Amino acid sequence: MSSDQDHLKETDTEARFEFKKEQKAAFAAEKGLNEETIRVISEDKDEPEWMLERRLRALKQFQKMPMPTDWPGQPDLSEVDVDEIVPYIRPDVEVRGGVDDWRDLPDDIKDTFDKLGIPEAEKNALSGVGAQYESEVVYQNMQERWEEKGVVFMNMDQAVQEHEDIVKEYFMTKCVPPSDNKFAALHGAIWSGGSFVYVPEDTTVDMPVQAYFRMNSEGMGQFEHTLIVAEKGSEVHYIEGCSAPKYSAFNLHSGGVEVFVGEDAHVQYSTVQNWSKNTYNLNTKRAIVEKNGRMEWISGSMGSKATMLYPASILKGRGASDNHITIAFAGEGQNIDTGAKVYHNAPETKSTIESKSISKDGGRTNYRGLVHIANGAKNSSTSVECDALMFDNESTSDTMPYMEINESTVDVAHEATVGKIGDEDVFYLQSRGLDDDDAKQMIVSGFIEPITEELPIEYAVELNRLVELEMEGSLG
Amino acid sequence: MSAQLPANLSVETVREISDARDEPEWLLEARLEALEALDELELPDVIQTPGRRWTNLEALDFESLVDPLNQSDETSREAPEDAVVLSFTEALDEYGDLIEEHFGSVVDLETNYLTALSAALFTTGTFVYVPESVDAEDVKIRAEMNSRSLFSHTLVVTEKSSSVTILEAIESGNDIDDARYFSNLVEVVAGENSYVQYGSLQNLDEETYTYSLKRGDTDTYSTINWIEGNLGSKLTRSDVETELNGEASETKIVGAFFGHDDQHLDVNARVWHNAENTTADLVTRGVLDDEARSVYEGVQDVGRDAWSTNSYQRENTLMLSDESEADASPKLIINNHDTEASHAATVGQVDKEDLFYMVSRSVPEQQARNMLVEGFFVPVLEEIEVDEFRDDLEELIAARLH
């Protein structure tokens, strides 16, 4: 093993992700969800009237909609009781909307992000960073050279104030309406924090921008909203990372992501999700892609108790394209139900979905996907590839793709395979002097390589490290 | 949602059907239980994705479709000497015990509303029994439906080390100026080391709604191969399923469908690996023309104790028209890691290059296209062991092309 990997192995997962901080808040909403809570949150944020109205409408939707319970093989959500969640915590930070220097953060919060390695990554590889702690963004910085070009990267609450017109037009109107699903409705009612990214026409932001979300308090919900508007011919890569310490009560993460990919624009959205293993991760992510635009979703789902997440692309303009690359890793007690949705609504649209999953120690992974090709989406093509690797007999791995094809001049292919780690491969590596654990780790690293090679190096390293941590010492 | 009990169904109706056939008490009881369960049962599950149900069974009006006391069919049965092939009713006299033992043992009669309706009302069907070590080839059952509704129940029992190949074909006889309903339940009990190929050809007229559920149960080392050809009907809902309960048992589910006009085909192939060293291969090929629509679900379910499983699935759909629709969902459900499983599905058109090649060899375009469509079904046709069945299917496919 290289010294680099040795170093990574020494990293203690507990120290890095699961440390806890004493809860200090400037303002915390009461548990549960009602009109009063929402009015209080909205007032605390000094929001315009229209946003309060949207929140209240979303709340009505939420109260009306049933919990999703009848999907075949879906995670058990019976524990998710919104009345038990603290929906909003404003951390104790002097400057509302975030500081732009890490040194200005209170020590305990700064320490958190230091441990997560975010400031270091900012120096080395990013165009800008936003960091959210509980319900609000506490740090926000964007390199000047991008600001000069008109690129906007700020926290969502601030964007409501400073870019009201754009937000009013795009916020949960066309892409993710609150009526989409119960948790999108919940999100619409109590969203807080998140990122707003605006890239003007023909502007290429060539280093990724990153947002990091940290949930620290017990029994809270985090509901950050991300809105990305990439104008015609622009290009941007957005990275989202998240973590939370483990508590005995459950946490709920129900974010909303809306991406508008303009004509000829290119947006890449990368996530490495490592929520603690008591978190329910019920997210809605969707992109609308105009003519010749290109959307890429890259996600690694490692953490959470249960995840239900199906990033979606609506290919609206001729020649629009979508790539999904996803990896799910479910260990003991985890149920990762994830996949991809693509709607081909215009001619000559293309999509590729590559999904890999690993399950071990009783973990459960499910690929649930939907590819819809509308009548008239001539000469469209889609290819879906799912591979599942299983370690032991306590684990479960399902593949449930749905394909709705309304057009004949198309090329649709779906393939899925499931297999256990090859005894022969392990034997071969062992015969070359690797021990059993290392051999299996190496096979898994090779298995997920198509995903890691799409990520910027810091994230690829992080994903590999997380996989290694998951595998460590638990192999038979 | 559950459908209503039609007003023309009652305990008296069921008694009348049973009495007319001079059935034993146990069968009448089974029918009555199924009838009683109707109130509680739901229609079969259909695939649902956000915003839509893929097949609308709720639209069926059973009150007008079902005419229980006027069922009529014309069925011929051909069998080799050493196998028993009798109408279900005739078989009750001599093989009552065997039938009682297995009736409803593979298909739970209360699976859903439609299975219970079928069990309560069936008047036709076949009993096939192949004694130990007997090889029965070319069992042929040809049925004609001559009434508004017809309910059929077929039971196949093979004993140790026997084998049988069966063709069951259904078509419409008398012209009836109305919507019709055909229901067919088939149960196969494959004994140890026995082999069953059950081929089915449905070519009912396009006023008919068809529901069929075929299910097999394998014993150790046994094989059940299904071949399911669907060409007729306005709406077809077909489920073909095998439970691999015996160690080292195998199944193949081979399907072919060809829809045109506004036909709707909801075709399902499912297999449960419940024992060690079992193998499944699911192959379905379908063609859609005009405004026809296909819904396909394939399920490979590998249970926790199914060590060393091999399971494969392929589904290919060819679309000849922009107005047609092909929906597919091939599912893998894997609970044992010692599994090699894969599934693949494709939807596309007749290959343009192939077409160009043939046209450049002076085959007229229409003819070239037809040849490619016929060629598309070859992997299915090759599986058929009853020659007459293969010829029939080939002919029907050719007739549908224009």
Question: Briefly, what is this?
Answer:
The complex is a heterodimer of chains A (476) and B (402). Chain A is of the alpha/beta class and 476 residues long. Chain A has helices at residues 3-10, 13-18, 35-44, 49-64, 107-116, 118-125, 144-148, 156-162, 164-170, 182-190, 423-431, 436-447, 449-452, 457-471, and strands at 25-28, 89-91, 128-133, 136-142, 152-155, 194-199, 209-214, 221-222, 225-230, 235-243, 251-253, 256-261, 266-274, 279-282, 284-289, 294-301, 306-309, 312-315, 321-330, 335-344, 350-359, 364-373, 380-390, 396-405, 410-420.
Q: How is this structure best described in words?
A:
The complex is a heterodimer of chains A (476) and B (402). With 476 residues, chain A is an alpha/beta fold. Chain A has 2 domains: 13-309, no CATH class; 434-475. Chain A has helices at residues 3-10, 13-18, 35-44, 49-64, 107-116, 118-125, 144-148, 156-162, 164-170, 182-190, 423-431, 436-447, 449-452, 457-471; strands at residues 25-28, 89-91, 128-133, 136-142, 152-155, 194-199, 209-214, 221-222, 225-230, 235-243, 251-253, 256-261, 266-274, 279-282, 284-289, 294-301, 306-309, 312-315, 321-330, 335-344, 350-359, 364-373, 380-390, 396-405, 410-420. With 402 residues, chain B is of the alpha/beta class. Chain B has one domain. In chain B, 22% of the residues lie in helices and 42% in strands. Chain B has a 9-stranded mixed beta sheet, covered by helices on one side. In chain B, a hairpin with a 2-residue loop joins strand 1 (48-49) and strand 2 (52-53). The longest helix of chain B has 15 residues, at 88-102. The two termini of chain B are 41 Å apart. The chains are: A alpha/beta (476), B alpha/beta (402). The interface between A and B is large, with 36 and 36 residues. Strand 25 (410-420) of chain A pairs antiparallel with strand 20 (339-348) of chain B, so a sheet runs across the interface. Chain A: Residues 139-210 form the SUF system FeS cluster assembly SufBD N-terminal domain. Chain A: Belongs to the iron-sulfur cluster assembly SufBD family. Chain A: This is ABC-type transport system involved in Fe-S cluster assembly, permease protein I. Chain A: InterPro entries: Fe-S_cluster_assembly_SufBD (IPR055346), SUF_FeS_clus_asmbl_SufB (IPR010231), SUF_FeS_clus_asmbl_SufBD_core (IPR000825), SUF_FeS_clus_asmbl_SufBD_sf (IPR037284), SufBD_N (IPR045595). Chain A: Residues 213-447 form the SUF system FeS cluster assembly SufBD core domain.
